[in-house]
C-alpha cells in the first residue's frame, strides 16, 4: 500500500504541468463559462420560465455534448497523457526496476488517470452550480434560486464517470504498449466512431462496446415514468451500460497488468 501511495503521489508531481492535468480542470470551466455567457446574452428571452427549466437549459447543452462526443475523446486523451510522460522521458525500465512492486506502479498510474476523470466530472457539477447561481444573482428573473439541481447534476456526471471506465482501461493499455501518439489515439478514435455508428444503427449488441457506453448512458439517463411529479427529475445511474463498463474496466485492468508483465515495455 505504501508503494501505491508513493507512486500515486509521484504521478501528481510528474503530471501537474502537463496538458492532460490542466485539461481535466479547464475543460469543464471553459465549456460551462461559454454556456453561461450565451445564457446571459439571451437572458431577456429566457426570463419567466420555472427555475427547473432554467437549470435544465443551462446544464443540458454541456451534458449532451459530453455524452455524445467529448467524454470518450477526453478519456482517450487522459489515458495517453498519463503514460506519455514515461514514454517521452524513456523511464519505463527505470520505473519498473524501482524497489516498488510492479503492481503498485501499474495500478497507481491507472488510478491517477481515473482520478483525473473523476475530478473533471465533479468540476462540471461545481462549475454548473456556481455559474447557475451567479446568473440567478445577476438576473433574478431567471429563477435559478428557486430550484436546486446539485444532487441531479452529481448523479448525471457520476454516471458519465462510471460509463467511461471501460474506455479508460482499454486506452490505458493501448497507450502503455504503444509509445507513439497515432496508434493509441487513432485506434481509440476509430473504435469510438464505430461504436457511435453501432448505437445510431441500433445494433443489438452495441452495449458490449466500451466506447459506446457514454452515449448509451446519456440515452438511458432519464427514465420515462408517468407517475413522477412535473418538478422532479430522476436519474437512473446504474443501468446495463454502466454495469458492463465496470466489468470491462475490471477485466482489462487486470489483464493489462499481465500483458505488460509478459512483454518488455520500451
TrEMBL record:
It holds the Pfam family ABC2_membrane_4. Keywords: Membrane, Transmembrane, Transmembrane helix. CDD domains: ABC-2_lan_permease-like (cd21809). It comes from the Bacteria. The keyword Transmembrane applies. The chain crosses the membrane at residues 21-41, 61-82, 103-131, 151-174, 181-199, 242-260. This is ABC-2 type transport system permease protein. It comes from Mucilaginibacter auburnensis. The lineage of its organism: Bacteria, Pseudomonadati, Bacteroidota, Sphingobacteriia, Sphingobacteriales.
